[in-house]
C-alpha cells in the first residue's frame, strides 16, 4: 500500500482568507510606514521618539478605524493599506521593547519600567482619543 503525501503537489500555501492584492497593500503600506518611523528615529533618536511615534500612530489608528467603519464606505484595500500597513509599520512596539532593554543595560531599570508602562497606557489612550476626536469632528451620532 502506498502512502499519500501529507501535502499534495497542487496545494499552495496562503494565509486563510488572504488575497494577493490585500497582502500587497499591507506590504506596500508597511514599507511606507516603516520609512516614516525610521525618519522620525533619525530626526529624534532615543526611546522618547519611539514613544511619540507609537502615540501618534495609535491616535491615527483610532481616527482611521472610526472613520472607515462608521462614517464612510471605502475601497476594501484602504484598511489593509493604511491601518495594517502604513500605521502598523509606523508604530513600533518591537523597538519599544528594545529601547526598554537599552535603558536597563544603561543601569536605569526604574526608567525602563516607567517607559514600558507609560507607552502602553499612552498608546491605548491615544486610540480612544483618536476615536473621540473623529467622532466629534464628524458630528457622528449613533
Automatic annotation (TrEMBL):
<keyword id="KW-0472">Membrane</keyword>
<keyword id="KW-1133">Transmembrane helix</keyword>
<dbReference type="GO" id="GO:0140114">
    <property type="term" value="P:cellular detoxification of fluoride"/>
</dbReference>
<protein>
    <recommendedName>
        <fullName>Fluoride-specific ion channel FluC</fullName>
    </recommendedName>
</protein>
<dbReference type="InterPro" id="IPR003691">
    <property type="entry name" value="FluC"/>
</dbReference>
<feature type="transmembrane region" description="Helical">
    <location>
        <begin position="81"/>
        <end position="105"/>
    </location>
</feature>
<dbReference type="Pfam" id="PF02537">
    <property type="entry name" value="CRCB"/>
</dbReference>
<keyword id="KW-0812">Transmembrane</keyword>
<keyword id="KW-0407">Ion channel</keyword>
<feature type="transmembrane region" description="Helical">
    <location>
        <begin position="51"/>
        <end position="69"/>
    </location>
</feature>
<keyword id="KW-1003">Cell membrane</keyword>
<keyword id="KW-0406">Ion transport</keyword>
<feature type="binding site">
    <location>
        <position position="88"/>
    </location>
    <ligand>
        <name>Na(+)</name>
    </ligand>
</feature>
<feature type="transmembrane region" description="Helical">
    <location>
        <begin position="111"/>
        <end position="134"/>
    </location>
</feature>
<comment type="similarity">
    <text>Belongs to the fluoride channel Fluc/FEX (TC 1.A.43) family.</text>
</comment>
<feature type="binding site">
    <location>
        <position position="91"/>
    </location>
    <ligand>
        <name>Na(+)</name>
    </ligand>
</feature>
<dbReference type="GO" id="GO:0046872">
    <property type="term" value="F:metal ion binding"/>
</dbReference>
<dbReference type="GO" id="GO:0005886">
    <property type="term" value="C:plasma membrane"/>
</dbReference>
<dbReference type="GO" id="GO:0062054">
    <property type="term" value="F:fluoride channel activity"/>
</dbReference>
<keyword id="KW-0479">Metal-binding</keyword>
<feature type="transmembrane region" description="Helical">
    <location>
        <begin position="20"/>
        <end position="39"/>
    </location>
</feature>
<comment type="function">
    <text>Fluoride-specific ion channel. Important for reducing fluoride concentration in the cell, thus reducing its toxicity.</text>
</comment>
<keyword id="KW-0813">Transport</keyword>
<keyword id="KW-0915">Sodium</keyword>
Amino acid at each position: 500500500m502506498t502512502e499519500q503525501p501529507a501535502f499534495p503537489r497542487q496545494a499552495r500555501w496562503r494565509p486563510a482568507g488572504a488575497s494577493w492584492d490585500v497582502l500587497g497593500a499591507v506590504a506596500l503600506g508597511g514599507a511606507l510606514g516603516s520609512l516614516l518611523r525610521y525618519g522620525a528615529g533619525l530626526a529624534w533618536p532615543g526611546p522618547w521618539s519611539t514613544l511619540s511615534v507609537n502615540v501618534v500612530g495609535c491616535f491615527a489608528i483610532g481616527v482611521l478605524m472610526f472613520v472607515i467603519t462608521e462614517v464612510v464606505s471605502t475601497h476594501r484595500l484602504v484598511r489593509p493599506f493604511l491601518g495594517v500597513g502604513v500605521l502598523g509599520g509606523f508604530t513600533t512596539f518591537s523597538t519599544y521593547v528594545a529601547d526598554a532593554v537599552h535603558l536597563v543595560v544603561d543601569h536605569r531599570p526604574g526608567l525602563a519600567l516607567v517607559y514600558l508602562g507609560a507607552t502602553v497606557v499612552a498608546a491605548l489612550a491615544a486610540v480612544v482619543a483618536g476615536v473621540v476626536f473623529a467622532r466629534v469632528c464628524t458630528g457622528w451620532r449613533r
